[in-house]
Amino acid sequence: MIEQLLPSAVVTVEAYGQNDTDLALFPEEAAFMTRALAKRRREFAAVRSCARRAMEKLSVPPQPILPGEQGAPRWPAGLVGSMTHCDDYCAAALVRTADLASLGIDAEVHQPLPDGVLPAVSLPAEADRLRRLSDRCPDVHWDRLLFSAKESIYKTWFPLTRKWLDFTEVDIEFSEDGHFRAALLVPGPRVGGHRLDHFEGRWTTELGLIATAVAVPHA
């Protein structure tokens, strides 16, 4: 599912349910989970299993993936990546830094957002556009899609800037063909000598899930 949203240079590994993953952790990773609930520990381990399988596909020895600043994963030198997990699904996407400047992925259960969440994560213009999209395509939970896209954007943004990006600092427009454009309402990062003012992304719905992805080329 995630693979179809990203350039061919990106390696992706997905897992559905718990039986598809090796839940072993490196000791350094286990140290971060000593107080975690069992569900959180399983998710933490499962998504790292996906990431290590992606490393193997890139001929990189499997190694610990520790949370760094703002919880962002610390990838081995020469790699950039992103991970996501939700109920019974997890995925990792990795690429060599020579091929992409940054990327972000997110998956969510394809259900409406809880009451009160949409106003906190959307701009008035976005909410208006979502209402129109819902009238035309009622089978898509556009509010959840907006949340997922903003998660993917943040995961893409942070490695480039090392700064927080609020939900209200990006304005997303979706197309019904599975693409979206995210205008940055704050100064964007410099990539290849140029300051970015937006990100381009893709989305899909499959198997009861919503998935979004953003990839930033070097130029």
Note down, in words, how this protein is organized.
With 219 residues, the chain is α+β, with helices and mostly antiparallel strands. Helix content is 29%, strand content 28%. The chain contains five helices and ten strands; from the N terminus they run βααβββαααββββββ. It has helices at 27-32, 38-57, 118-121, 124-136, 142-161, and strands spanning 11-16, 79-86, 89-96, 102-109, 170-174, 179-184, 190-191, 194-195, 198-206, 209-216. The chain has a five-stranded antiparallel beta sheet. Strand 9 and strand 10 (209-216) form a beta hairpin. The chain starts with 10 loop residues before the first strand and ends with a strand. The mean pLDDT is 95.
Coarse structural class: alpha+beta
- Beta strands, count: 10
- Biggest sheet, open or closed, and with what strands and sense? 5 strands, antiparallel
Radius of gyration: 17 Å
Shape: globular
Write the element-wise H/E pattern from the N-terminal end onward.
Answer: EHHEEEHHHEEEEEE
> What is the CA–CA distance across the termini?
26 Å
> What portion of residues is helical?
25-40%
Which segments are poorly predicted (pLDDT under 50) over 5 or more consecutive residues?
none
Main sheet: strand order? 4-10-9-6-5
Mean pLDDT: 95
Question: What portion of residues belong to β-strands?
Answer: 25-35%
If helices are DSSP runs of H or I spanning 4 or more residues, what is the number of helices? 5
